[in-house]
Design brief:
The complex is a heterodimer. By secondary structure, chain A is mainly alpha-helical. Chain A has eleven helices and two strands. Chain B has a single domain, classed as Rossmann fold (3-Layer(aba) Sandwich), CATH 3.40.50. In chain B, strand 9 and strand 10 (238-243) form a beta hairpin. The chains are: A mainly alpha, B alpha/beta. At the A-B interface, helix 8 and helix 9 of A face strand 6 and helix 2 of B.
Chain lengths: 281, 287
């Protein structure tokens, strides 16, 4: 595995030296995939083996094969209707959070006095675990999807709002000045400079909002509902159907991973000029 | 003034020299008794300057002396607290078609390609042009700064020197009669700055443009300018107003003249810089 310096003699007698690196094996070339997959496989094997030796009471914990059976059971049963309800709650709630959060954030970011007035309130609410309001929302909006939509909207709006405020404020003043100097006026300055430069912040806000929104759906359903993935996890847990309960958790993990992967692609597509991850966490 | 400067048209405030007394045409830029400040701090103190068409004028002075502020006012980004500024006979407003600005940190839109960045001014100032027409003009000026092959790249793909070439092309593309340059080579390494200075000189030599050039680099000022305005430590006034007349670059005369300009300017500039340092040591809060 060592580097070779190769000497080539050209026709005119001069020597050209080329550095040759040996080709890496496919395992090392794709190590960003091969290593984590190996780790997961090892954990699953150890877990399954430990389960076979009955190291724990099956009432309290489960093994991968049993969870997989629970997953099949879920998929043949209520999973899809649960996901449809949870998904609807999530999407409507996110839409409300974006429709309110984006313009409000831009307004607060642009107007210094408004920002001074509302900054303490926004920050206080952002750092409060608003999930404690869930019972109140159930009283207001009922056991159905209304209370979960409200839950998602309230939790997801703050990361959007705060990142939009931050984005507008950190828009490079020289860029605005350059646009004005070259003749941009009024709303065109917004459209041509402010909007593109807050895009990365928007995507960061969106990513955080998605995380919060998923928690909001599950907790909302967990506390009071008759359908939905959060309700399913709770009801399986209550009857000690541990494999099916853990299968529900696995479904949540899979969905999170898929959504975050999509957001990352989106992040790179929307702002190819910038490193991802700018914004306020 | 020193005897050293005899034979050179050196003007300074104390002697009450009439600015550009030899000029008969109306000056392109007229700065009259301008004062400006922030809070209770006066930054620009009664500055009085006329600039003629086609002059390359450098503003030089210690850091934070208000050179860039004065330039921003010429671009209409701020109005004087008292006194008046006239550019081509009118109070400047942002975006006027007679001017273009080149920024120290390039100020290129990172989400636009190099070509779209060069088009920026054309989009706002010449809305009658179709996209194709704009592109053609932008390509022409991009070609002039030697960057045709980079048209579709983004600014972050380019080095600082290349980015400032784009900044120059963007400014030249709107064909302004006046160019305002705010330490355009200040963020570049010495070698790239040298090359860009040479390029700027040849770009400027082709046409009769008025250029106001802010710098803290003495050599840059002497090499490029027809006239150098030396500003004092804040609140800034015009301390010295020098006409630069240099012979052919490779003559012996060039070197000796160049050195005399430099020595003279440095004498004054050193005094101003030392004033700033003195104030900092005394903790007077003067920044």
């Amino acid at each position: 595995m060592s580097v070779i310096i190769q000497e080539n003699r050209r026709d005119d007698g001069t020597v050209e030296r080329i550095r040759v690196e040996p080709r890496k094996s496919w395992w090392r070339r794709y190590e960003k995939l091969t290593l984590p997959i190996t780790a997961v496989v090892i954990i699953l094997v150890v877990w399954e083996t430990a389960g076979a030796f009955a190291l724990w009471n099956p009432l309290f914990f489960s093994s991968p094969s049993q969870i997989f059976q629970g997953l099949i059971e879920l998929a043949q049963g209520p999973l899809w209707s649960d996901l449809a309800v949870s998904g609807t709650e999530f999407l409507i709630g996110m839409a409300i959070a974006l429709v309110l959060g984006v313009p409000l954030g831009i307004l607060l970011g642009s107007n210094r006095r408004l920002r001074i007035a509302f900054d303490p309130i926004v920050n206080a609410l952002y750092s409060t675990p608003i999930l404690v309001l869930t019972p109140l929302l159930v009283i207001w909006f009922g056991l159905g999807i209304g209370s979960k939509i409200a839950n998602v909207a309230i939790l997801a709006i703050f990361p959007v709002l705060i990142n939009m405020i931050e984005g507008v404020q950190t828009t490079d003043a020289t860029l605005i000045r350059a646009a004005r100097s070259f003749g941009a006026r009024g709303l065109r300055v917004y459209g041509d400079v402010t909007f593109p430069s807050i895009l990365p912040f928007f995507v960061t806000g969106l990513r955080l909002a998605i995380g919060k929104g998923m928690i909001a759906v599950v907790v909302g359903e967990y506390i009071a509902a008759t359908v939905g993935i959060g309700y399913r996890i709770r009801s399986d847990a209550e009857v000690f159907n541990t494999p099916r309960y853990l299968a529900g958790v696995v479904v949540m993990v899979i969905i999170s991973v898929i959504i975050m992967a999509i957001v990352k692609v989106f992040e790179r597509r929307m702002a190819p000029w910038r490193e991802p991850g700018s914004g306020r966490e | 003034m020193t005897a050293l400067m005899a034979g050179m048209p050196v003007h300074d405030e104390e002697r009450g020299v009439h600015h550009m007394a030899e000029a008969h045409v109306e000056p392109v830029i007229r700065i009259e008794k301008v004062c400006f400040g922030y809070g209770t701090k006066l930054v620009i103190d009664n500055v009085d300057v006329d600039i003629d068409a086609g002059q390359f004028v450098s503003l030089i002075g210690p850091s934070g002396c208000g050179k860039s502020t004065l330039l921003a006012m010429l671009d209409g980004m701020a109005s004087p607290d008292s006194g008046s500024i006239l550019v081509n006979g009118q109070a400047p407003r942002p975006g006027d078609p007679d001017r273009a600005m080149v920024f120290q940190n390039f100020a290129l839109m990172p989400w636009k390609t190099v070509l779209s960045n060069v088009e920026l001014g054309l989009r706002y100032r010449r809305p009658e042009l179709a996209k194709k027409g704009r592109r053609e003009i932008a390509r022409h000026f991009l070609d002039k700064v030697g960057l045709s092959s980079a048209a579709d790249l983004y600014p972050h793909n380019l080095s600082g020197g290349m980015q400032q070439r784009v900044g120059l092309a963007r400014a030249f593309a709107v064909e302004p009669s006046i160019m305002l340059m705010d330490e355009p080579f200040g963020a570049l390494d010495a070698q790239n700055a040298e090359i860009l200075r040479e390029e700027l000189r040849s770009l400027v030599a082709e046409e009769n443009r008025t250029i106001v050039f802010v710098t803290h680099n003495l050599d840059e000022a002497i090499q490029l300018s027809d006239r150098i305005l030396l500003m004092s430590a804040g609140p800034s006034r015009i301390r010295d107003d020098i006409r630069v007349e240099l012979p052919e670059v490779h003559s012996a005369e060039y070197v000796s003249r160049y050195d005399r300009y430099r020595e003279h300017l440095w004498d004054h500039l050193r005094h101003e810089v030392e004033t700033v340092q003195q104030r900092e040591r005394e903790g007077g809060g003067a920044s």
